[in-house]
Design brief:
mainly beta, Coagulation Factor XIII, Chain A, domain 1, Immunoglobulin-like, 2 domains, 5-stranded antiparallel β-sheet, 18 strands, 2% helix, Filamin/ABP280_repeat-like
């Protein structure tokens, strides 16, 4: 409490997403003051966080010099007994207007701490311009202070049945004696591309298999030969590739999947023709 009788608050929130490192939200926490600091919300996962609040006594000079963790109070520091609210804002919309987003705050069972969680199930991965807003209120619901942090939505796990395949040349034609590239785009359950641009790197390679057969709607029973090998080296870019090298003209089907689970648009029909590829 300062000389005018007002209670000054030290607000802290720590957000943990999976194995991600904790991030602090506070008007006074050093870690929050780093330029460009962003909190990540993973699609399809329950992102747990704990909100900590302490009175201004925590910001005594001795505590500041000690760089005290936001989740720990200095000796003699009292916890705040009011209430907290959490919402996400962005691009002119509030949390309720963001599709598939739900943030809840539980009851405080430990003085000064509130358990909270945010569940995102939308197609916002990789987008910026969203803010997590923490509001501190007293027991009469009067707002005593707010703090915000940048939010980024991170793609969820790859879902085989949502992945999409296509020829790199954008047509349904491939050319004889030419390395025609087939792309397999990695997608999550919420139509987000899964890769570095949506916060996901180093994903364990998915064992896609590509089987090329003659199209039963075509009278000739042409074959491609050995199954194309799927190259996973561009996984961080959000897709895999496979080379199709037909030696005979005709109509084919490319079946793409993992074991018996096919991607969304498998099988992919294409026609092998003579001539030079024009890219």
């Amino acid at each position: 409490m300062n000389e005018s009788g007002l209670v000054l608050l030290h607000l802290c929130a720590i957000l943990q997403t999976g194995d991600a490192a904790a991030i602090a939200i506070s008007p006074y926490c050093t870690s929050f003051d780093h330029a460009g600091e962003t909190i990540s919300l993973y699609e399809g996962q329950l992102n747990n966080l704990t909100i900590y609040t302490w009175t201004m006594e925590c910001e005594a000079t001795a505590c500041i010099n000690a760089n005290t963790s936001c989740s720990l109070a200095c000796a003699g520091c009292a916890s705040f007994a009011g209430d907290v609210n959490l919402k996400i804002e962005g691009q002119g919309v509030n949390a309720s207007a963001i599709p598939g987003l739900n943030c809840t705050i539980g009851d405080s069972s430990v003085p000064g701490q509130w358990p909270a969680s945010c569940l995102a199930m939308n197609n916002l991965a990789g987008r910026s311009g969203y803010t997590l807003v923490l509001t501190i209120m007293n027991n009469a619901s009067a707002v005593l202070g707010t703090k915000s942090a940048n939010i980024s939505f991170v793609a969820g796990d790859v879902v085989i049945t949502k992945c999409i395949g296509s020829l790199e040349n954008g047509t349904n034609k491939v050319f004889l004696t030419y390395d025609n590239i087939l792309q397999i785009f990695l997608m999550d359950d919420y139509n987000n591309s899964v890769g570095a641009k949506t916060g996901r790197t180093g994903i364990t390679p998915i064992p896609f298999n590509v089987t090329v057969t003659w199209n039963p709607d075509d009278g000739s029973k042409v074959t491609l030969g050995q199954p194309p090998i799927v190259d996973t080296t561009k996984g961080d870019d959000g897709y895999y590739t496979a080379l199709i090298n037909p030696t005979k003209t005709g109509n084919y089907l490319a079946k793409i999947g993992v074991n018996n689970t096919m991607i969304m648009n498998s099988p992919i029909p294409f026609q092998a023709i003579k001539g030079e590829a024009t890219l």
